[in-house]
Amino acid sequence: MKPPHEQHATLPDLAAPDADARPSGRRTFQLAGTVIAAPSLGPGLHVVATPIGNLGDVTVRALETLAAADVIACEDTRISRRLLERYGIATPLVPYHDHNGASARPKLMARLAAGHRVALISDAGTPLVSDPGFKLVVEAAETGHKVHPVPGASAVLAALVAAGLPTDCFLFDGFLPAKGGQRKNRIATLAAVPATLVFYESGPRLADSLLDLSERLGPRRAAVCRELTKAFEEVRRGDLPALAAHYAAADAPKGEIVLVIGPPLEEAAGDDAVDAALARALKDSSLKDAVATVTGLTGRPKREVYARALALTEGRAGTAPPDGDD
User: Fold this and answer.
1) Fewest CB within a 10 Å sphere: which of 154, 204, 219, 263?
2) Per-residue pLDDT for the chain (326 aa), expressed as one digit of tens each?
3) Pairing between strand 71-74 and 117-120?
4) What's the rounded Cα separation, in Å, for the pair 196 and 201?
């Protein structure tokens, strides 16, 4: 989930490598003090989930795949090396991230064209979830190479499990925009989605995001899930206004954060609640965006919310929206 820090790392020549070029030619891993030979691995791109914090959460299949691969493409070799050293894996690591993707991808594609076994991992969790692996998978698939998913840990699913909110339907939307105006517009777009919402967030932006979410989504139930699976794991539950107030008064939390927010309230709000929500939304949103936000927040019909918005802004109660604006 983090941007890479390898500013000076360079990618080795991958066009025609020796597939067994590693210390002692080893294709083994260690588990509980026992050295285990990795089974043979088919050619193609192997997309491998790794732990999100606790290194004990890796799967045996992930270890087998990483040990048997010819090369492992990762966001930050320093982070990934900790996992490999923990389990005695000697497979070469090469950096593949947003900053070097254009130059690194052709070399990895050359590996695949030569029939090699390429593993793709991220700094933590399942690749392609808010990390740069998507373009490599798309190009590999379009070129006809096999793409093998090796499932495992995911911060999104771990947070859903811990939050205590509906899981039958959810929407993961990555990171909210950093700029306030863009963030508020994005929240307005998502307000009416009839599902639990899941976001990644950083500590320094958490308080501002929670404030914007509480103003536009109201008292929905939510959970702030921090440092999942790690020593200082924390899950704080409450409604959005209460969580916003807590983090506004606290120091910016450290570590990886997942926000989980319950779906829109099912019970329709009364007129006073609709007017109060519209007054907040109209402060920094257009009439259209405010109506969309409050419709999703309150459960009231859009035509009714539109009429009340006009009553607040123009003193024209009961005016219906234009044709096609239902």
Assistant:
1) 204
2) 443 333 333 334 444 444 445 545 679 999 999 999 999 999 999 999 999 999 999 999 999 999 999 999 999 999 999 999 999 999 999 999 989 999 999 999 999 999 999 999 999 999 987 667 899 999 999 999 999 999 999 999 999 999 999 999 999 999 999 999 999 999 999 998 999 999 999 999 999 999 999 999 988 999 999 999 999 999 999 999 999 999 999 999 999 999 999 998 765 567 887 888 888 878 877 888 888 877 766 667 888 888 888 888 875 444 445 444 44
3) parallel
4) 16
CA–CA separation, 147 vs 300, rounded Å? 46
Percent of the chain as helix, strand, coil, to the nearest 5: 40, 20, 40
Helices (H), the chain: 60-68, 77-86, 101-113, 134-142, 155-163, 180-190, 203-217, 240-249, 271-282, 287-298, 302-314
**Biggest CA-to-CA distance, the chain:** 81
The answer to whether residues 286 and 323 touch, using CB atoms and an 8 Å cutoff, is no
Q: How far apart are CA 150 and CA 139, in angstroms?
A: 18
Hey, what long-range contacts does 252-255 have (CB within 8 A, 24 or more apart)? 252/203, 252/204, 252/206, 252/207, 253/203, 253/206, 253/224, 253/226, 254/203, 254/227, 255/203, 255/226, 255/227, 255/230
Question: Which structure tokens are listed for 122?
Answer: 């991220």
Dist CA 279 CA 216 (whole Å):
11
Distance of CA 251 to the CA centre of its chain: 23
- Partners of 259 in beta bridges: 199, 224
Work out whether strand 196-201 and strand 257-261 pair parallel, antiparallel, or are unpaired: antiparallel
Tokens of 116: 């090699």
Q: What are phi and psi of 25, to 5 degrees?
A: 65, 25
